[in-house]
């Protein structure tokens, strides 16, 4: 009888200890510095949205929105289907638009478990009254190749990423 | 080019662009507030602009682990983009400490809304085009406006001379247009420029620096605080500084200064590439600042007020247009069957009303009269009598409907002889009074078969009374019984007031008397305003100058004429009796508040308004009163007022000229030559000369002053008239 009580108490203690401990262990985050370099296109400043794409090729999460006027968000059609302004609060992760030839340096944070697991970072772009690029540039979240420069197809000339200090 | 073409295009452009301009200007006023509200945010640190870039960067780098960029905006606020806990953050900092001062100013929804409406009317590219085009039209409106003002004012030199006042809309349209001209032109031109830039008609050329990666050096290593550029460039020069993306030597500092962009090797501090901004970019930057007012509170206010002027100018402009009577004239008798021809030179159409009245009365008395505009002068086969009634445009030009008249007179010689009479309409408040009427008279007189019935007759301030005087003289000569009716529109619409006679002083031997009136209603006249009295129903009005001797008492000084209807009516009024009359504002004959020295010149009862004005002289500035009368006795009526004022120091001195007192006739104008030092001093020191009395005296006095002015000051008298240094109210 005593034995049972000891075992139960022990098990409970262990369980609660694990529970308490686990709440302290955060999932590890990795953060990368990312440079978006635009081409010398003509026209208004470009809207670019950076999203995390899961191994199935679906949108997982919005990482960054380069564009400060929500009026133009629907122009980024594929992303808008996923986000449509209600799913996520993009205010905290949005920044000013940049024009042709300019570059923007941002910091992107990822869940460590997404690294080397088939996830991709997609750069989607649109310019007022001009063509829309669903995939202007895409980078595999692969720690071995992530530092390589990736060229864009649309308004983006290239993307560079380096781990944050 | 003739006025009408400019005027027509001015109106046409305004109609075409009015809606867009109204939207753009109202949103523009709202947007003018934005740079002001940004500028007053407390993110400017005094003395920070003198810091070097090296010091600034050091301060920031010690505070934050990873810095991406440092910028300085047009308000002089410095902000940094840094990574904190893996997240981008941008905020204003104190360059001395690197401390965060506040988050970036968020564009308020109202400003966002106004900006979109202002730029594109929410119609994207179509809207941008419309607004850009309206902006272009605004340039054309401004230019045609400048030409119109110059024409009205009689040349570009007189551009800022006082404006002849016809009515509220006309006067204020011109006055405010002159004030807002510069901000409006700047807004319009930069607006067009920004539109052209937007549509890539002006190429947006950017700096494109090339780095020769093969020759990048990795040594010698220098601390960034030792880089020459960082040490020698003050923070005030900075626009934006981007840190190298990584620690590889291929990544470099990108630095945009006020005038150039350059790349800096992050290890050695060498300049890798450098280029001044292309001119287009500099212009674009200026255009943006000038158009938005960004960074300057003062300029934002100027732009805001300029923007505010657009709705005002649009409304007054259209009122001027719609109020301008359409000069459509119907004639019963053709030009070749009429004995009487009346020609009108009119600008706003008021002169036409008087002419139409005369025309009507001639027809009623059974005469064949033909009414036409002066520009329609041609052969009039049966014309015996010609009457020309003309206004003068601006500062002595021909009005719109008379521009070709002088040429036409020379071209179209009449076969038969005819007599003519010229009536000029104008205002003595402005120089070149009835100038064009005199020119018309000369042109007609030069013909060999014309007879001038009389000299030019001038009508001041659309006075029906004087026009009627002319008419009775003229019709008598013509042998016609003509009685003019006062045109309705000219009647002042102000309500009449009731006055009580509180005192009457009389000088029977001179036939003059003074009435002291108390106003029982509310209207508050100022000395120099006029009292319009209608002595009996259906009679025409008579005007008397008011002297306001104290808050309650108005003084009018009257000469009784034996058969004078009105003077006798006023004369028979007893103490406490009531009188109905109307106050007429006479803004051009008010006591000048800012003149240090003033001279009053009056003859006879013309002294009336001055008796009141002396009382306004609370500051006891210099006032010299010159008064002319026939005999010394006439003075007794005003003696008390003058002597009290002299004692109280409200009047400096009082000089008289009595024409019949001695064998030699002395008139008031003779005193001007005698006291010329005083008169010259008054003119030079921006003082004012006010004249009240008979027209004959006014002419003589003006002639004397003209001589003085020419001889000693080297200026035409109109120079001083333009500056309102000479004010007249004569009858």
Automatic annotation (TrEMBL), chain A:
InterPro entries: DUF2271. This is DUF2271 domain-containing protein.
TrEMBL record, chain B:
This is FAD-binding oxidoreductase. The keyword Transmembrane helix applies. The lineage of its organism: Bacteria, Pseudomonadati, Bacteroidota, Flavobacteriia, Flavobacteriales. The keyword Transmembrane applies. Residues 494-592 form the FAD-binding FR-type domain. Residues 340-479 form the Flavodoxin-like domain. It holds the Pfam family NAD_binding_1. PANTHER family: NITRIC OXIDE SYNTHASE-RELATED (PTHR19384). It comes from Zobellia amurskyensis. The chain crosses the membrane at residues 12-33, 129-150, 175-196, 297-322. One of its GO terms (cellular component) is cytosol. One of its GO terms (molecular function) is FMN binding. Keywords: Flavoprotein, Membrane, Transmembrane, Transmembrane helix.
